């Protein structure tokens, strides 16, 4: 096969095929007497495996998997696959923690205006040191007054502090609360969060299905190499 033969099957450029070989994604090609690359069904299967791995694992991880296989380190490749699946599992557990935390939330009143750390701490029945600890953990992100350097909590910051306070009273750890607060911020509040969580779940499911397709492609390539 020529580079163009591999490229046409997947709508790629011939330069992309050469780049994949140079990166170790494809095994080294043979050469004609005049120096042209010659590919085989093994290279075609390698390319299919790589393109199947990318949607579930990402380009960098898929590259590492193929590089390991092509240098004969199959166990290393399988370990990389396992680590990628473990990251997906961690993401699923984070989503489950966020969903559980959301069920425990009471309605958070809409705040207006700015406040400082002392008044906010008194309103929540906390010590200022607790709010500073939450700030270090990323749960609240007050801005600083340019003249005094004091922390200034806007409406969104007060909302985040109230959410964190509710969840702490519910027994959640700071590392469990942080993903929820991040989701609230990205969703623009608590109300739109359910839709964001559904989208998050859909993305995780799509990633899991893509990993299954990638596993099938990789297994086919491994069997081709063995035969």
From TrEMBL:
A Pfam family this chain is assigned to: MerR_1
Record's keyword terms, sorted: DNA-binding
PROSITE patterns xref list: HTH_MERR_2
InterPro entries in UniProt: DNA-bd_dom_put_sf, MerR-type_HTH_dom, MerR_fam
Domain HTH merR-type: 1-48, 117-183
GO molecular function: DNA binding; DNA-binding transcription factor activity
SMART domains found in the cross-reference section: HTH_MERR
Gene3D superfamilies xrefs: 1.10.1660.10
CDD domains associated with the record: HTH_TioE_rpt2
Chain ranges passing through the membrane: none
The protein's name: MerR family DNA-binding transcriptional regulator
Organism from which the protein derives: Microbispora triticiradicis
High-level lineage: Bacteria, Bacillati, Actinomycetota, Actinomycetes, Streptosporangiales
